[in-house]
């Protein structure tokens, strides 16, 4: 049988197979709804990044009027979910802003190829929003610092929880645990990279988006490749040593 | 162009294209339910970036590229594998498999990227260069992968009654 005949046979088989498909309901209205939602989410994420940076800038400015120079005065309260465990003073805001910008830039440089543009989320040092990467969806990137119980971090598969872990030695000798597992109590998997540094365990996790039913467009292999870039490790170690993450370190 | 016109254009296109995309998605996914989800996601992406899609040289080609890339991305992410824990995969060839099951089982043996190449090349009748462009790889990769995949399909389908049937007329 010639190559052309084989090709024709395969094509004919495909046609006959596809002919047996059940009828498709009209997917158009749902596509419009989902497409609009995706657009809105993308815009919201971009706005949140800009607004967060702007808020940090505003907070860093000297306050005119009745609050200026009043120790212990009625300054605007910090949002309840802020990570910083110290007061939201000018120095802290400036520190947060600088940390956010450097970290977002590094995450963008090392993971941006898969995740797109990465922006800090409002006034959080630990949360970043990735948008416009492969698939053009938005995903949450979270840095967590906690006390290290082992070095290197424990890395085991837990099949019943669909959790898989691979231990990878990075170029500088650091041993990282790269996991894919369901996150946020939902069925969808995210990926994470954990390593120990000076008594702390630092985790970088890319979460799935349960609202739209999507897992992040990055595999553990791709995350491991990104972790080979010394800039990513440096950024995570900066988080481990930053007072902005003190709470996580002490809470365990 | 007002948003309402853009939406109408999209709806018109989506209704006309969804059946064709569904058939391709079915050959990629191997089951109707996943194929429908894949088409749904593809259409949502098309609507999200409809202005860009309309500006493409070939709207059908653009839609096909989105479909293929969403499929590969989802396979990479393991979402489908995860879903398979809760969904019964019907693609299992028995001792006397029917035509559909035989082909789908054979396609399921191929790696996702190779499967996409076979579907684009032989089902969608895309040129080697078009497939290479859509999958962001070299033409030689497409040629060698398709050749290997065709050999594997031949091996799998060789004994199947349907495959041994007469070559369809050209």
Structure, explained:
The complex is a heterodimer of chains A (252) and B (170). Chain A is an alpha+beta fold. Chain A has one domain (28-62, 84-251). Chain A is built from six helices and seven strands; from the N terminus they run αααβββββββααα. Chain A has helices spanning 3-19, 28-60, 90-115, 220-227, 230-241, 246-251, and strands at 116-120, 127-132, 138-147, 164-169, 175-182, 189-197, 200-206. Chain A has a seven-stranded antiparallel beta sheet with strand order 1-2-3-7-6-5-4, sandwiched between helices. In chain A, strand 1 and strand 2 (127-132) form a beta hairpin. In chain A, helix 2 (28-60) packs antiparallel against helix 3 (90-115) and helix 3 (90-115) packs antiparallel against helix 5. The termini of chain A are far apart. The relative contact order of chain A is 0.13. The model of chain A is unreliable at 54-91 (pLDDT under 50). With 170 residues, chain B is mostly helical. Chain B has two domains: 1-90, Orthogonal Bundle (Rna Polymerase Sigma Factor, Chain: A), CATH 1.10.1740; 93-170, Orthogonal Bundle (Arc Repressor Mutant, subunit A), CATH 1.10.10.
């Amino acid at each position: 049988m010639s190559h052309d005949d084989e090709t024709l046979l395969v094509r004919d088989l495909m046609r006959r197979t596809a002919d047996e498909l059940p009828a498709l309901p009209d997917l158009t209205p749902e596509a419009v709804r989902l497409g609009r939602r995706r657009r809105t989410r993308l815009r919201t994420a971009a706005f949140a990044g800009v607004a967060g940076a702007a808020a940090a800038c505003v907070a860093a400015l000297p306050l005119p009027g009745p609050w200026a120079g009043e120790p212990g005065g009625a300054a605007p309260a910090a949002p309840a979910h802020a990570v910083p465990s110290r007061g939201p003073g000018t120095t802290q805001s400036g520190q947060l802003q600088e940390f956010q910008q450097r970290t977002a830039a590094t995450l963008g440089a090392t993971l941006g190829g898969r995740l797109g543009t990465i922006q800090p989320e409002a006034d959080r040092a630990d949360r970043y929003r990735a948008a416009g990467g492969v698939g053009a969806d938005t995903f949450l990137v979270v840095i967590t610092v906690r006390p290290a119980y082992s070095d290197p971090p424990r890395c085991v598969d837990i099949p019943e929880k669909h959790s898989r872990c691979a231990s990878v030695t990075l170029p500088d000798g650091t041993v990282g645990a790269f996991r894919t597992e369901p996150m946020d109590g939902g069925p969808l998997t995210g990926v994470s990279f954990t390593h120990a540094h000076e008594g702390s365990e630092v985790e970088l996790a890319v979460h799935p988006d349960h609202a739209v039913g999507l897992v992040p467009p990055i595999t553990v292999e791709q995350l491991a490749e990104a972790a080979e870039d010394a800039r990513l490790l440096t950024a995570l170690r900066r988080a481990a040593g930053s007072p902005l993450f003190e709470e996580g370190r002490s809470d365990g | 162009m007002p948003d309402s016109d853009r939406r109408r254009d999209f709806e018109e296109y989506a209704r006309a294209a969804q059946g064709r995309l569904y058939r391709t998605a079915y050959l990629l996914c191997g089951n109707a339910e996943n194929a429908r989800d894949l088409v749904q996601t593809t259409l949502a992406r098309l609507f999200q970036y409809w202005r860009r899609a309309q500006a493409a040289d070939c709207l059908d080609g653009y839609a096909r590229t989105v479909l293929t890339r969403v499929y590969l991305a989802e396979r990479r992410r393991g979402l489908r594998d995860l879903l398979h824990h809760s969904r019964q995969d019907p693609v299992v060839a028995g001792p006397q498999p029917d035509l559909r099951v035989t082909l789908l089982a054979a396609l399921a043996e191929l790696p996702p990227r190779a499967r996409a190449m076979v579907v684009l090349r032989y089902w969608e009748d895309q040129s080697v260069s078009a497939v290479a462009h859509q999958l962001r790889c070299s033409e030689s990769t497409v040629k060698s992968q398709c050749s290997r995949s065709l050999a594997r399909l031949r091996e799998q389908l060789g004994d199947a009654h349907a495959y041994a049937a007469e070559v369809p007329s050209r």
